[in-house]
Amino acid sequence: MKQQRHSAIRTLLALEQVGNQDELRRKLAARGFHVTQATLSRDIRELRLSKGPRGYSVEHSGSNEVDEMPGTREVLRSFGLEVRQATNLLVLITTTGSAQPVAAGIDYEDWPEVIGTIAGDDTVLIICPDEIQSTTLKSRIEGYLG
């Protein structure tokens, strides 16, 4: 969903001027992408959009990479140890001191199965809307853990 939304943002900016976030949010909603202000701000940062007098534009650089930070898959493979399920909750055990960056990576993904995360030192609590989505996410994370 995030990649589709990013593609829609790039297309919108290539086709027309967008002066502010609210205008961009409305144009995305017209295309079926209903996002919060926080998600849109994160998208703008991830896409490295520039804002000038004529509105937002896509930064053109020699690199095609949207984000230089490691992906969630790499972070989980490096620091994740085990994931356990308790109905709609997941408890993700990480290496000592790694829970907060792992939780941030999960939050950054904007997965529909995740309502939110809480991180300690070596444990991330992942809150899902229901048990079915929790099970789906547990399987995905286990695949990333290897």
Query: What integer is the average pLDDT?
Result: 87
Output the structural class.
alpha+beta
SSE string, helix = H, strand = E? HHHEEHEEHEEH
Large-scale geometry: elongated
Strand order of the largest sheet: 3-4-6-5
Structure description:
The protein has helices at 2-15, 21-30, 37-46, 72-79, 99-109, 131-145, and strands spanning 49-52, 55-58, 80-86, 89-94, 116-119, 123-127. The chain is of the alpha+beta class. It has a four-stranded antiparallel sheet with strand order 3-4-6-5. A two-stranded antiparallel sheet has the order 1-2. Strand 1 (49-52) and strand 2 (55-58) form a beta hairpin. Helix 4 (72-79) packs antiparallel against helix 5 (99-109). The two termini are 24 Å apart. Mean pLDDT is 87; it is low at 62-68.
What descriptors fit this protein?
single chain, 4-stranded antiparallel sheet, 6 helices, 21% strand
Task: Describe how the helices and strands are arranged.
Elements lengths: L1 H14 L5 H10 L6 H10 L2 E4 L2 E4 L13 H8 E7 L2 E6 L4 H11 L6 E4 L3 E5 L3 H15 L1
Helix pairs in contact: 4-5
Quick structural overview:
By secondary structure, the chain is α+β, with helices and mostly antiparallel strands. It has helices at residues 2-15, 21-30, 37-46, 72-79, 99-109, 131-145; strands spanning 49-52, 55-58, 80-86, 89-94, 116-119, 123-127.
